Amino acid sequence: MPKVSEQHLEARKQQIGAAAFQCFARKGFHPTTMQDICAEAGLSAGAVYRYFDSKQAIIGSACDVTQETSDQELLAGAIETTDTRQMLQGLADAFFSRLDGPDATTQNRAILQLWAEVAVNDDVRGSFKEREATIADGMSAIVVEAQGRGDFEAALDFQSVVRAMFALYDGFRLQKAIDPSIPTAPYVTVVKALLTGSFWTGVVPEPAKA
Amino acid sequence: MPKVSEQHLEARKQQIGAAAFQCFARKGFHPTTMQDICAEAGLSAGAVYRYFDSKQAIIGSACDVTQETSDQELLAGAIETTDTRQMLQGLADAFFSRLDGPDATTQNRAILQLWAEVAVNDDVRGSFKEREATIADGMSAIVVEAQGRGDFEAALDFQSVVRAMFALYDGFRLQKAIDPSIPTAPYVTVVKALLTGSFWTGVVPEPAKA
Amino acid sequence: MPKVSEQHLEARKQQIGAAAFQCFARKGFHPTTMQDICAEAGLSAGAVYRYFDSKQAIIGSACDVTQETSDQELLAGAIETTDTRQMLQGLADAFFSRLDGPDATTQNRAILQLWAEVAVNDDVRGSFKEREATIADGMSAIVVEAQGRGDFEAALDFQSVVRAMFALYDGFRLQKAIDPSIPTAPYVTVVKALLTGSFWTGVVPEPAKA
Amino acid sequence: MPKVSEQHLEARKQQIGAAAFQCFARKGFHPTTMQDICAEAGLSAGAVYRYFDSKQAIIGSACDVTQETSDQELLAGAIETTDTRQMLQGLADAFFSRLDGPDATTQNRAILQLWAEVAVNDDVRGSFKEREATIADGMSAIVVEAQGRGDFEAALDFQSVVRAMFALYDGFRLQKAIDPSIPTAPYVTVVKALLTGSFWTGVVPEPAKA
DNA sequence: GATGAATGAGATTTCATTCAT
DNA sequence: GATGAATGAAATCTCATTCAT
């Protein structure tokens, strides 16, 4: 009966992964002990090791899980919208709404751990960059499109524009990880204003090349 | 002659702190062993423990050192400029130039470690938040001023504006920590464009409530 | 089946405690290393720490174990005897016979370590005094009884009489700890003589208050 | 000028020895660190090592110092008294008065440490036994004399009698080390009573072999 | 002679991992 | 499949001792 086994195996991995995730968000990867994970998962050490080869493997798995996989879908939906402003606002709402969920703080803190690990651990950096690249590609397409439509200044490096969008998201996530009481809504308003031209209300000089 | 001793003590602390900083940027706080730090500092374990009570103390010290203290000066200089655009551009140049220094990558990676630790370790969170608050206050003054001058949309929550500025900085730092080859200049151009109204070139709707 | 586990746990604690006891008697508490104890117990460091939280805990446990618990029974038996002389002789035989057992020297040396520790370590002093008090109470009852019967000089402070009895026991134990070859029997004879009036054979003056 | 040097050297040794003694009484030999001793003596580590080769040497020296050297004189004085009772009372007063001096507790606790060490450390055992033997010899002479005079039961093993006297002294010292509040006077009364026949007031049987 | 910074061996303790049951 | 006792390498930290100044 490989089906049952398969399912069971997947379920257990899930269970252990979720437990580990909690622990990691709470204490960080390295201070978390296997005992912590076992206790959180309600399993014995032996059991955990049946499903994961090592603590590193659990960390690796947690790193993979950490990044939302639905990013793609959000982007795919967005690109069909041809009104740039509307699309940006939709995207912003979609992305930032994830920072207000019930376990957003857990998520955010775990992601901080992930970033720190990625900066330092070659094993997880690879897949991290890959995933980032995928989303970045999706965003790039959107940015280029908007530039084509004449909504974003065409002279700007589109990759840097994508980076700025990422930064506005991740940088805020960082702040909420450290202080979860920060309200999301007014921040999103500012982000929308920045991206859609209602932030700066002063004089705008003639384009560089006049 | 306590002067000599005092100076020596400070110098050694500096030396050990710098060594630890390197290690932390390279491996993270917890995977770094005292041996690593001793080797990097060229000292024996006993010597290191004459200057720091524990590894935790070294981490704490590194966390304090990590944040640039010159932020204040930059802001102090900026607030005297009354041309908002010019001021923002100056600020952006000043801040972002720090991400291209010779050991910027070390700095950036160490800061990732710091963020991760702050999210998880009450002992370092306190002083971290304090320092952040100080800078945030400086920025707030600038933002409020700019809103007063009619350069930033007055309806925007000024705290959120500050957060967005932080995010644009820290979020990019995160990216450079993970991939140091990213060029800073085009990103700074985008940031300036965002903040000074030359990013969005499409139609700008009438203010929400006209 | 918690029974097995419970029993196992107790057995292991016993085993480790006994091993530690040997080591302590051989080298003293502080010069004994955990390695010594592990080796004596035939266990790894990790195993030992599953049953005791720290070396201090092992010392504490050894201190508790060190004092014979059967003292009470001896005294309980004694108090039923109404012939003071016979009772004292029985008690002396019972107590001192313990100084000639196979591992009496180990015991004696361990007790020296205990005394030294008690004088210096608040943590173990408490329970030590408690246990001593219990035995002292038992002895006191006997002494008061004997005074009531007119066998011991009534004017003597009964607590000091008890102390003298303790001293005759512990002081000899001290000697045997240092030189185990000292024979017990002639010493016991002297003790009996002292307590039952056949030691001093010279003139006895009239009682103080004549 | 060897004289000055000699004197200086002796003075420093004294100073260090006294400091060490305090520390030992307070914490025991092994938990006492060289730093403790240096601090107590008001000297640097280097200075201490100029006068003592090692910590062991300091312990050894402390062990030598610990035992009162005036024992001999007391005994020498005593043996000239021909009234056994008077002599015993004088001896008891002389010896026990030492347990009430200002730093008697320090002394007592240090001696506990010494005993524990002697039981365990061959290096100090030798000189300890020697010194004990000297005093024991002095006491033996007194006891034999008293037996000759018909004051102590002649059938008793004189060495065991000496041991009993030691025990009454050391055993009480042990008690005072642990609880310094115990009063000495009533105890001495009991000791005198035991040794001079006024303790047991009941019927005394005929000598074993009549 | 004196200092006290430095050494480095060694002590205690933890924890990822294994394996007999 | 699951358990959890056992392992032992490795980490943090201490402290007796030395030696340049």
Number of helices of chain A: 10
User: What oligomeric state do the depicted chains represent?
Assistant: homotetramer
Largest sheet data of chain A = none
Taking pLDDT < 50 over at least 5 consecutive residues as the criterion, the unreliable ranges of chain A are: none
| Terminus-to-terminus distance of chain A | 73 Å
Q: Give the number of DSSP strands of chain A.
A: 0
Shape of chain A: elongated
Q: If you compute it from the alpha carbons, what radius of gyration of chain A comes out, rounded to the nearest whole angstrom?
A: 21 Å
Mean pLDDT of chain A: 90
How much of the sequence lies in strands of chain A comes to: under 5%
Portion of residues in helices of chain A? over 70%
The most extensive contact between chains is:
A-B, 67 and 67 residues
Structural class of chain A: mainly alpha
The H/E string of chain A reads: HHHHHHHHHH
Short description:
The structure is a homotetramer of 210-residue chains. With 210 residues, chain A is mainly α. The first copy, chain A, is built from 10 helices and no strands.
